[in-house]
Amino acid sequence: MDMNEKDIILRVEGLKVYFYTASGVNKAVDGVSFTLKKGSTMGIVGESGSGKSVTSSSVMRLMQAKSQKIVDGSITFEDIDLLKLSQRELLKFRGDECCMIFQNPMTSLDPVFKIGYQMVEMIQEHQNISKKEAWNRAVEALKLVGIPEAEKRMEAYPHELSGGMCQRVIIAMAVCGDPKLIIADEPTTALDVTVQAQVLELLRGLQKKLDTAILLITHNLGVVWDMCDTVMVMYAGNTVEYADTKTLYKEPMHPYTWGLLDSMPKLSSTSKEELTTIPGTPPDLRLTGRCCNFYNRCPYVTDKCRESVPPLVEVEPGHFVACHRQNGAEHLVRGEVNRHGE
After folding, report:
1. Who contacts 207 (Cβ-Cβ below 8 Å, separation ≥6)?
2. How far is 216 from 85, CA to CA, in rounded Å?
3. Which end of the chain is more exposed for a tag (fewer CB within 10 A), N or C?
4. What is the dihedral of CA 111, 89, 171, 68, to 10 degrees?
């Protein structure tokens, strides 16, 4: 994405993360690149198993050292090479500069400790302040995220709060240190629709107030349209399309992106209409990296798609696509009859 270097807070280049298992090497992330601008929101979308969460957890290096490894690429936060940080430096980075909101709030909090205890402990771990100051800061954070009777909630256990309330607590813990980057890994998946809207509105409000960049992992394209400035579409560990949100919705170019957008239910749809689906299943990640990973599900497939990996090409300013038939020289038309396939 074309932007001034000084505006970029996070840069990921050629990231490859492999899982080493008894059955083989799973290429969970196999060459992902993107940049995130200060104070902006970027969405990463794709179906389950596409590598969204692995990409986000790699930024914070939250992985099992024995089975999961970053085998190539770079992750730079401002001027800091995150792959070279020591464990102590990582702990400081995770609390002071970057924080993560996980998709299930009920498992993100320790069930045997009160909310206040957990928040105070987290704040004191990253800030040199007294217990009383940490307590007051925690109360203010709970008020900031719209939790009523904040002092009373500090004395509650996680199971005494609803899922939406617990997610607000997690967000409050995240913003206590005024982080420059918040990674939200499907933060609304475990919540009902009404609470989802409230949480997203809360994140948007906090971003404006704190000027925080947000990396939002989701499978919900409606959330992307509502929240994100830019969006990256992932499939089987690869970036297949990357653009600003309006461009992606109005002028999508990758066949997989077309499939995702077509599968969204429309307000004009009737109850008798069948939902559009993408036929087939994602590939075995142990066998990827030899051709286009989407070829077996793509209605526009050609022999070239089966023979080589399509590079990520900037087909228009700021619009990147990895497709042999959308490389600038060729221009695939959405919905056209495929005369090149079988």
Report:
1. 39, 41, 182, 213, 214
2. 24
3. C
4. -70
Mean pLDDT of all residues belonging to the chain: 88
Q: What is the pLDDT of residues 59-70, one digit of tens each?
A: 999 876 678 899
CA dihedral 39, 45, 183, 193 (to 10 degrees): 100
Q: Pull the structure tokens for residue 227.
A: 């929240």
Structure confidence at residue 340 (pLDDT): 56
Crossing angle of the two packed helices 115-126 and 131-144, in degrees rounded to 10: 110
HEC profile for the chain? CCCCHHHEEEEEEEEEEEEEECCEEEEEEEEEEEEEECCCEEEEECCCCCCHHHHHHHHCCCCCCCCEEEEEEEEEECCEEHHHCCHHHHHHHHHHCEEEECCCHHHHCCCCCCHHHHHHHHHHHHCCCCHHHHHHHHHHHHHHCCCCCHHHHCCCCHHHCCHHHHHHHHHHHHHCCCCCEEEEECCCCCCCHHHHHHHHHHHHHHHHHHCCEEEEECCCHHHHHHHCCEEEEEECCEEEEEEEHHHHHHCCCCHHHHHHHHCCCCCCCCCCCCCCCCCCCCCCCCCCCCCCCCHHHCCCCCHHHHHCCCCCEEEECCEEECCCCCCCCCCCCCCCCCCCCC
- pTM across the whole model: 0.87
CA distance 84 to 235: 28
Q: Which amino acid is at 296?
A: N
Say how far apart CA 333 and CA 213 lie, in whole Å.
Answer: 35
User: One-letter amino acid identity for 208?
Assistant: K
Q: How confident is the model at residue 159 (pLDDT cuts 50, 70, 90)?
A: very high
Cα–Cα distances in Å, from 30 out to 52, 95, 147, 258, 262? 12, 28, 41, 22, 26
d(C-alpha 28, C-alpha 31), whole Å: 10
